Amino acid sequence: MDPVAAKFIGAGLAAIGMGAAAIGVGLIFGNFLSGALRNPTASDAQFGRAFIGAALAEGLGIFAFLVAILLLFVK
After folding, report:
1. Membrane spanning segments where (predicted)?
2. What is the pLDDT of residues 39-54, one digit of tens each?
């Protein structure tokens, strides 16, 4: 296999993490909204935790993007 082709395949596999992060953020806020609609009095206490979870998921997505960019552009 050509090393350039392997580099592109590796970057594509690393980019899957960005999609997984988007799915994770959707699940976090979807479950938060479901819980907030069931118990509106507890939603204020859980709102900060939802943002912390979303920030961690987005951080993993940005890390996957960084790995993909490094695989593509670093010799």
Report:
1. 12-30, 50-74
2. 999 888 899 999 999 9
Q: Which CATH number fits domain 22-73: 3.90.226.10, 3.20.20.70, 1.20.20.10, 1.20.1640.10?
A: 1.20.20.10
Residue 26, both tokens: 């959707």
59: its two tokens: 């951080």
Tokens of 5: 């082709």
Neighbours of 11 (CB within 10 A): 16
Report whether 22 contacts 61 (CB < 8 A).
yes
For tokens 């993909």, name the residue: 68
Q: In this structure, what token pair is assigned to residue 44? A: 């204020």
Residue that the structure tokens 């907030």 belong to: 36
Q: What is the 3-state secondary structure (H, E, C) of 14-50?
A: HHHHHHHHHHHHHHHHHHHHHHHHHCHHHHHHHHHHH
